[in-house]
Amino acid sequence: MARPSATPPVHAKLGYKAADDLLLHLPIHYEDETRLSRIADLAPGRSALLEGVVERAEVLYRPRRQLLVSLREAGTEAPFHFRMLNFYPNQLAQLRPGVRLRLYGDLRPGFFGAEMIHPRWRMVAEHAPLAGALTPVYPTVAGLAQARIRKAVEAVLATADLDETLPDPLRARLGLPGFADALRRLHAPGPEDDVAGLERRSHPAWRRMKFDELLAQQLSLRLYAGQRRRRQAPVLAEAGLAERLLANLPFPLTGAQSRVLAEIRADLARPYPMHRLLQGDVGSGKTCVAALAALVAVGSGRQTAVMAPTEILAEQLYLKFREWLVPLGIEVVWLAAALKGKARQASLAALADGRAAVAVGTHALFQDEVAFRDLALAIVDEQHRFGVEQRLALRAKGADAAVVPHLLMMSATPIPRSLAMSYFADLDVSVIDALPPGRKPIATRVVGEAKRAEVVARLRDYCAAGAQAYWVCPLVEESEKLDLKAAIDAHAELAAELPELRVGLVHGRLKADQKAAVMAEFKAGGLDILVATTVIEVGVDVANASLMVIEHAERMGLAQLHQLRGRVGRGGRESTCLLLYAEPLSETARRRLRIVKDSQDGFAIAREDLALRGPGEFLGARQSGAPLLRFADLEADLDLLEAARSAAERLLHDDAAAARRHLARWLPHGFDWLHA
């Protein structure tokens, strides 16, 4: 018979690898058991510590089974009560008349007078000493009591190394307390401490923790940047093919495109790995710059991998790369889950023996069976939509472990300054800050679902004038959980309401060749309206499409709405985006729609998006389980972030040993995820 397994230690139950990690498992709020309150002084709903002597304890059965305990506070005539809806027989036996109790909880008026429901209580002797510090309440998991966490934290605090890692002049300049004092104050603050400041995280002890966390992040990023420059990467300097493509393009590069291309070429010509983020608003021409960068690698006799988050975007990129590169005699293959059988084997073989110089695909690019002969450049489009491990896995596809491929990440979601200073601090950032000439502003309107018939009428007029339109729906099929209009149903309704127009349908569940055929027909003008799910969010370029209707826009995020809107406004016509919403609207949804309506500035929208969603969702790191900042808030603590940036460089230069100790405390289990 198997022996029962031992109970996991507290740190393991909380998801930590070592007991010392509990040092930084900080309280979320505090309970004040350092002073006794009197009922007469308490406002309803306020938490407090009360003391009383049990007069009676009885089990009641109406309206439900419960334990009612009556107590008398010293010097009062009326008793007060507490009720327990869940209790054990031994608790009833303990609560006999004459027993003195201390209770902590919320006092509120009840059927029996002033009462507490399920307070924390314990038996005490008369004049028993009070707690000397506030009682911390920690984040926990099911089945793990606060008392166990407190005991484990106290044990770690008693033995852990709390040495100072910051120079005294730096602490003095920033007004920060010592690390040991700050940590002990957070785990066990005294009654004289500013409890409101502790819970708002504005107390000096909290500022010290936030600064230390940000400093650890900045130190790790700088160390990584130094390590990267000591690693070997292929030197890519052949620009002949890129120049040939430029000569073949039907349009000149904008000044912004030329500038960022020069920055990328300079990186590729260095013997250490490029780590560059190329960002630009929707329609700014990032794909063209990526193709020109790929040609520098191809011209140097090496291979390029281009990874996109969805099959339809991978297909769009694949078609663009083929259109531009095949006339130059370059073989381009694509890999995705939908590619099967002989076609897949042919793509894998062409990559392995080097015949294919460029591979475009989805997550399929970094599967075990994919082998490149000589991968020199990895391009990741919409990088925030990939998990950290996925981005690392693509970089690991280089044939020689000693030589690291260059990495170019692209995003149409501009990075707010605070994020650029933190998570992207080890990246070189190129910004395409100008749209191609002729791009016109897109008029954006917010329309209630009740006016859908008017929207359909407007759609008829648009298409009758020779324009094309998108109708975007969030789902493919009806969901019982979400009352959303499905693309399939919307397509059927629009085809019935507008019989004189040609209505097509594309969504993620279509086979790759079906999607490509529908998109090609729409681009060629064979369809007036394309009903689609959000698969057309990025990468789709149809110049004649000048109207977009987005159903249930209230369900979508800011970045997604901005990306979708960018599919129109690519030709000479005035373009419009209609955001259809259903009531009732939450305040957050109302704010999102207002932001998109009032702004076409991708950076302004990105800042609002960060404020609404937080960095984990914005970066795409949450999907990977990677830890983000636990204590600091990038926007609210921007002053600490700026101070940490400058302090990191000085600390590495003046006291590298202290910097290493600081990193060991805050990132004891490595920090590769920061550099993906």
From TrEMBL:
Listed under catalytic activity are:
ATP + H2O = ADP + phosphate + H(+); Couples ATP hydrolysis with the unwinding of duplex DNA by translocating in the 3'-5' direction
Q: Which InterPro entries match?
A: ATP-dep_DNA_helicase_RecG (IPR004609), DEAD/DEAH_box_helicase_dom (IPR011545), Helicase_ATP-bd (IPR014001), Helicase_C-like (IPR001650), NA-bd_OB-fold (IPR012340), P-loop_NTPase (IPR027417), RecG/Mfd (IPR047112), RecG_dom3_C (IPR045562)
Q: Which Enzyme Commission number(s) are on file for it?
A: 5.6.2.4
Q: Which UniProt keywords apply?
A: ATP-binding, DNA damage, DNA recombination, DNA repair, DNA-binding, Helicase, Hydrolase, Isomerase, Nucleotide-binding
The identity of this protein, by name, is ATP-dependent DNA helicase RecG
| Species lineage | Bacteria, Pseudomonadati, Pseudomonadota, Betaproteobacteria, Nitrosomonadales
Q: Which GO terms describe its molecular function?
A: 3'-5' DNA helicase activity; ATP binding; ATP hydrolysis activity; DNA binding
User: In its keyword annotation, does this UniProt entry include Nucleotide-binding?
Assistant: yes
**Gene this protein is translated from:** recG
User: What SUPFAM superfamilies does the record tag this protein with?
Assistant: Nucleic acid-binding proteins, P-loop containing nucleoside triphosphate hydrolases
**Purpose:** Plays a critical role in recombination and DNA repair. Helps process Holliday junction intermediates to mature products by catalyzing branch migration. Has replication fork regression activity, unwinds stalled or blocked replication forks to make a HJ that can be resolved. Has a DNA unwinding activity characteristic of a DNA helicase with 3'-5' polarity.
Which stretch is the leader sequence?
none
Family annotation (NCBIfam families): PRK10917.1-1, PRK10917.1-4, PRK10917.2-2, recG
- Which SMART domains does this chain map to? DEXDc, HELICc
Q: The Helicase C-terminal domain covers which part of the protein?
A: 465-611
Biological-process GO terms, alphabetical: DNA recombination; DNA repair
What organism, scientifically named, is this protein from?
Parasulfuritortus cantonensis
